[in-house]
Amino acid sequence: MGKFKRYFNGTEENSDAKPNKKGKVPIPKELLKKYDRGDGINKKGIKTNIHQKKLEKKEEEADAGETTTQFTQRQIRESVDITAATKSFDLHLTDFGPYRMKYTRNGRHMLLGGKRGHVAAFDWVTKRLHCEINVMESVHDVSWLHIETMFAVAQKDWIYIYDNQGIELHCIKKLHRVTRLEFLPYHFLLASCSDMGYLSWLDVSIGQLVSQYNTKLGRLTMLTQNPWNAVLCVGHAKGVVSMWSPNSRDPLAKMLCHKAPLTALHIDAKGQYMATAASNRELKIWDVRKLEGPLQEYKLITAANNLGFSQKNMLAVGMGNVVEVYRDCCATAAKRPYLRHRFVTSIGNLNFCPYEDVLGVATSKGFTSLLVPGSGEPNFDALEANPFQTKSQRREGEVKALLEKIQPELITLDPTSIAEVDVPTLKDKVEAKQKLLHVKAPKINYEPRNKAKGKGGSVKMAKNKKIVQEQAKKEFIKSTKELAFKVEKKQKKEFGVFDRFISKKS
Where does each WD repeat begin and end (predicted)? Predict the structure, then answer.
């Protein structure tokens, strides 16, 4: 029996064990010594606070005198394990760009759409291709539906629905010249905005158009959803972000975010922060729950065309052909980017992969998967979004989602208001009473009886008609007053426990 050192909770322990015994693999002492950073800085000998803060700041960085921004993707790939290194790859598709891409909710599958008609869906982890088609016309945006076997493509004139084999399932001609797509998973609504300034919500479970409104704000090219309340946020050239629901023809709220035209906006997965960018190189972070802010303001080198939050609130900013990732930039001000990567061509769009430390970037000539350590949520709920689900689990999940489908009437700016009790205020009661008292009397159509010739004239007929109308009006006013008295009596305050001690009025 050989002896080996086992490290457990930072302590060494000598024990006799077999080499194939289950447990933690022993770490060689030479490797620990090689990669150990030491005990850190001793602050006792430092007299001034300024020098203490400088040294503390250096201690927080990756290494003495280094920043994480200078690390390239090649260095990150060489430092991680083989499984994580395979998640960083490039796709060179030079003839059909610029591209747009989307991940599924569980982060397992990816959809690519090129401006010149190239559409591809595949499992990006195993690199297994589902389908690859050429639609022979321009593609403006792509979006997955509730499962990975169906996706929507916004083409030149209409929206087309395809399955994962590339077979066309539907052609939706009610949605014309769409520029951006968003899917609301809990409502089964495919939301879109168009060149004509229209916002539309299509229920994919029954195939009906729920609502379609003209925003009267011109061409719409920026669309994102708030995952907390399923409200659509649209960016405009006047620096305004408007929030829309399928239940209202007017926006639920408007925020003046910039004094210049907006170029990009995005909301994080929890619905807490909204990032907006404008053409004057400004980047602002807003508290979207209170519609307040800005919480943070940044001045970029160039205007940002793409924004994307990760599950751990990292913010990816696409500026031309450069991507910068900021960490902890919402609650506090970030002094420098966490990572930076430069591409050869311009960026189409970018998205963080759910439950993975991966940032997907679609460019003019293909797609690149970047490793961003610490960006993804490590723990997933298998009943909510399972990256390893089987076919039977997918079928059961689809049926359960349809049974728990939320109606579009419940989409509001504050979803917690649905659980509140609807108690009428004093103002509502007074207005209801006034409306009741000022209701016009119904019109009386008086038709006189046909009499013999010479028995009744037109003057007498007019008098009789006026008498009948006045009598009906008096009866209506009397009944209205009685009804108002009954309503007022019902609206009186109910008696409490101690009201029995109050003397009754005669």
Answer: 255-289
